[in-house]
Every structure is written in structure tokens, then in C-alpha cells.
Amino acid sequence: MMMKKSILSIFASIVFLFSFNATAIELNFAQGGGSQGQMTMELTAEWEKKTGHKVNFLEMPASTSDQYVQYKTWLSAQNSDVDIYKVDNVWAGEFGTQLIDLKPYLDEQLEIMPNVLSAYTTAKGEIIGLPYSVGIPMLYYRTDLLEKYNRDVPETWDEMTETAQFIQDKERAAGNDKMWGFVWQGNAYEGLTCDALEWVASHGGGMIVEKDGTISINNANAAAALDMAAKWVGTISPEGVIGYKEEDARGIWDQGNAVFMRNWPYAWSLSNKDESSVKGKFDVVQLPRGPNGKSTSTMGGWGYAVSKYSEKQEVAIDLVKFLSNRDAQHATIAEYSMPPVYIEIYDNKEHAETYTLLPLLKGPSQALLPRPSAQTSGKWPQVTVAFYTAAHEVITGKKDGTTAVAELEKALKKIKGKGW
Ligand code: GLC
């Protein structure tokens, strides 16, 4: 009797183990770290609990440009080990043919804000990534310091520069020798493309390559915009800014050592944490404008994509849909200060109680300037390298703005060849 029972229970456990192994799938997921990486892992843990599947995260380098190089290597090798990639919104043209078209599988995700979803849509209309947030760059400023020195929130780059210098000088004279006026992203990488596009467009200097494919960068407004930034280096911005990425700028800001910072909304919740020196002492506003243009914010943001070489596509699709639905947004946007991708969430009163920035981001979320990746199609990776290299040469004093934009025009014409 005893014997019979244990044989039965062994048999039952084998059946159970067999059935569990037959359905439990392990996925590999490549993504950047930081707070957004943390957010994705938290949500994924919920999905793992719900489905019994397991996900291994592969942490990518902090620079978007380095991440791009790694993805390119894997995708060109038709690597079947990576199932899901977190992709930047400018990569649809480049990786479009190596990522699966998610469109036939979508339901509520089709209601994502059209300006955002279109960044993940290929020329053929395939949706190759599902955004979980849209990046809206803002000017962070110290409310306490502006008040102390009786200065208004700047609306133009000139006003920002003048106020930054004024407060930096005063604070230093008072013994605060670490104070800087303005921190931003000056490393030679995709982040500089975002910042420099804002300077150029907000000076009325166009968007590097216009919507119709015309190369427009060689103009006096664009040159003036780059020259303006070159003057910041070593005056209101540390010499080291030419090597800064997002987190370097935030490091200085977070210690209370900057009057202004250009950054994405993820920095808002981190700056509001107890351990931040600027908690309760800052606010954000739209980026300043130049003499001939209007305030411009480059569209940022990331989405989830499934590799064509994955052997577990069905399960991977289920996860990326889970991560980009409304419930996932409601669960995380306030804690991580992510701008949502469903328009009505910007009006959510409950979130706005703690995430007070949320309602203010609604207008800007509709007015973002996409980088010209769609019109330059698969050539965007070369275009952005040419652009940020030119911008970097100006901010490091190797060239003046006029020379840099003239040479950049030539380089872009070569990249364009007979057509984008
Ligand atoms: C942010 C943006 C992304 C951009 C990157 C540049 O991560 O979301 O779109 O390319 O910054 O550093």
C-alpha cells in the first residue's frame, strides 16, 4: 500500500515537472540599466509570476550609441539568444528588417499616441517596437537659487546663460566653489545629437535633414547655435561637460552643484528622493529658445522589440505587450516619472498628486521634434555620428560653427549619395 502510494506520487511529480518544463520558457532580454531598466525588471517580475516563464536581463552600456553597436553585432550575426531588445526610437530604419512586425498582434497598444508610435513604424508601416514612455527633455532649474538672486525663469538661451553665470559667480564668491551654471550632455554620442538638435532648431536652424530629405544644416542660425554652446564650456559648464552623458550631468545637479540642467524626465523622481541634495529646491520648464526660433525638445524614448531570430517569439510578444499596456504605465509612471504614451493618462488626477510634473508634460508630449531618422532611413546611424562629431568639434574648440556646418553638409551629401 505504502509502496503503491509513493510510486504514484513519484509518477505525479514527474508528470508535474514534465508539464511545467514543457510550458516554462526562458527569455533573454537586452536593455540599458538605470532607473528605466529597474522599472522594466519590476514589471517583468509580475509577468513571470503570472505566466511561470523566466526572463534573464542582459545589461547594456549606458551610452545609447554603444548599445547600438552591440545590437548591430548581435542582429547581423542573426543571434537567436537574444529574444527581446529595448530599442531607441530612432532605430526603426536601421533594425526594422531584423525585428518582427508587432502590428498584427496588438490591441490597446494601437492607441498609443500617434506621434510616438510612428517613430517605431517602418516606411512599410510595420510596428517594430512598443514604446513604454516618450522622452521629453526639459530645463531643470534651482528654485531656491533663482529666488535668492531674484532672477526670473529664463525663456531664451541668452537669459539662461546670463543667469547661470551670475549665480555661479555669486555662489563661488560666497565660498561655494563647486557651483556650475549649466550641465548637459556633451559627450560625442547620441545624447549630444539630441542636445545639439535642440540648440539648432531653437535658433531657427532647421532639423539637420528636413522632412523632405533636404540637407539643411549649413546655415548661419545653426552655426550660431553651436558657437553658443562652445562658449558655455569652461564658463558656465565644467570643462568636463564635453565628456558628459545624462548621468554625469545629473551627478553634479544632484549634489546641488548646478543652477540649470538639461535632462529627461527620469531625473525628476530621482531629484525628489530624500538622498538628493536638490529635493524640494527645483522645478522644470521647457527648454530655452534662441533669437530666431522657438523652444524645441528632441523626442526621446525607448520601446520593446522582438528579434526575428528569436525562437520564442510568441512568448516574447506576450511580454512586450504586457510591458506596454495601460496597466503597466499606471503601475510605474509615478515612481519613475516617465511620461506616458497613452494621452489620457496625462490627465490622471491620482498620479498628479505625487507626480506633479505629469499634467505639465501633456502639451510638450505633442510638440516634440523627432530626430531626422525617418527621412534618412537606414542611414540615420551614419548621419547622427556625423552630426554629433561636428557638434563635438565645435564645443571642444577645434572648429567654429560656420566651418563645422559647411563641412557637415558635405559629409551628409556623401552619406546620402543618390538618395536616402
Ligand atoms: C534618452 C532618450 C533616447 C536618446 C538618449 C540619448 O535615453 O530616451 O531617445 O537617444 O537619451 O542619450
Structural class: alpha/beta
Number of domains: 2
User: Count the strands?
Assistant: 9
Note the main sheet: 5 strands, mixed
Question: What are the segments in which pLDDT stays under 50 over at least 5 consecutive residues?
Answer: 1-5, 15-21
What is the string of helix and strand elements?
HEHEHEHHEEHHEHHHEHEEHHHHHH
Architecture overview:
It is a single chain. The protein has 420 residues and is of the alpha/beta class. It has 2 domains: 24-131 and 300-369, Periplasmic binding protein-like II (D-Maltodextrin-Binding Protein, domain 2, 3-Layer(aba) Sandwich), CATH 3.40.190.10; 138-299 and 375-416, D-Maltodextrin-Binding Protein, domain 2, CATH 3.40.190.10. 45% of the residues lie in helices and 11% in strands. The protein contains 17 helices and 9 strands. The chain has helices at 2-23, 34-51, 64-76, 92-95, 114-117, 143-148, 157-173, 190-202, 220-232, 246-254, 266-271, 313-323, 326-336, 349-354, 362-366, 380-395, 401-416, and strands at 26-32, 54-60, 84-88, 130-131, 138-142, 180-183, 258-263, 282-285, 302-306. Helix 2 links the parallel strand 1 and strand 2 (54-60). The longest helix is centred in the N-terminal third of the chain and has 22 residues, at 2-23. It is globular and about 65 Å long. Alpha-D-glucopyranose binds at residues 64, 88-89, 135, 190-191, 194, 246, 264, 300-302.
